[in-house]
Write a sequence for this structure.
């Protein structure tokens, strides 16, 4: 074992190297829509042929967060020949559901429109995110195509479909009744603001529950959906009763991943599910993306 002083020095060096590895975007603050938060950063992988791209949506309970949080992870994808986009979107205080999700869908359309300029293969687009961003990415990946062929806006005519999704700590359902059944939770936290509900009682009404079901990735899953990779930092251990009102103890729970994994199994949709009790093998995410991009590039 290293002496404490050396261990601290090594830790400091590791932090320095991680910071040094954070690559500057090829293009920063690119506008994809009219709102002040409709901006994204783009990192271009070095290649002579069109590449696949990972689109990432940050977390923050739909109330905070920023695209810059992904900069430290960009190099691992660039090294694998995968270009990267990290995008901001409107917060719930600026646009209730489906506003943030539609922003994410527009990012996919906008990125696809830049395929030639950014040296991308438009069939090889993966969506990703953490926490709130994971819920967005799954909603986009599993939702029917949102393209509007007759729109006056050329971006809106482009497909929103993705080749795959790889997400972390995403709530796959926002149904208040299911959440209470799974976790005994009575505090729905940021979900209230996302839907514009004043309190938990209003959130449970048929009007708001209908919106919550529509926002749930598991509601949109069908047999023709793309492969999924679900990552949860916690395990499947049941929630203690005392934690029923503590949002942080259930919002990222691995039971959400298991819920979607089970439905994928019934429908025959490829789904990889990792959690504390079943950790992912080294390099699993890059391998998953490469396999998805390879399949997406094959003639149908």
């Amino acid at each position: 074992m290293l002496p404490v002083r050396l261990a601290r020095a090594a830790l400091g060096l590791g932090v320095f190297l991680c910071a040094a590895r954070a690559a500057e975007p090829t293009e920063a603050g690119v506008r994809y829509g009219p709102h002040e938060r409709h901006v994204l950063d783009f990192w271009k992988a070095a290649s002579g042929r069109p590449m696949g791209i990972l689109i990432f949506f940050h977390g923050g309970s739909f109330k905070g967060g920023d695209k810059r949080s992904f900069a430290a992870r960009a190099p691992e994808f660039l090294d694998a020949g995968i270009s990267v986009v990290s995008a901001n979107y409107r917060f719930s205080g600026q646009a209730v559901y489906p506003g943030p999700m539609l922003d994410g869908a527009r990012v996919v359309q906008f990125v696809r429109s830049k395929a030639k300029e950014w040296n991308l293969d438009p069939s090889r687009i993966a969506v990703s995110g953490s926490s709130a961003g994971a819920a967005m990415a799954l909603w986009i990946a599993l939702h029917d195509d949102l393209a509007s062929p007759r729109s006056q806006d050329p971006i809106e005519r482009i497909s929103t479909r993705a080749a795959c999704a790889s997400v972390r700590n995403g709530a796959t359902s926002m149904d208040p009744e299911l959440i209470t059944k799974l976790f005994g939770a009575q505090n729905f936290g940021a979900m209230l603001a996302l839907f514009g509900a004043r309190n938990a009682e209003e959130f449970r009404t048929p009007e708001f529950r209908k919106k919550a079901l529509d926002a749930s990735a598991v509601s949109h899953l069908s047999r023709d959906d793309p492969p999924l990779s679900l990552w949860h930092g916690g395990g499947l251990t049941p929630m203690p009763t005392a934690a029923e009102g503590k949002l942080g103890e259930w919002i990222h729970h691995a039971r959400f991943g298991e819920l979607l994994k089970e439905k994928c199994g019934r429908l025959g949709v490829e789904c990889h599910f990792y959690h504390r009790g079943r950790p992912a093998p080294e390099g699993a995410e890059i391998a998953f993306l490469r396999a998805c991009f390879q399949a997406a590039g094959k003639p149908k």
Q: What stands out?
A: The longest strand covers residues 120-130. The domain at 22-296 is CATH 3.40.50.1820 (Rossmann fold). The chain has eleven helices and eight strands. Residues 1-20 have pLDDT under 50 and may be disordered.
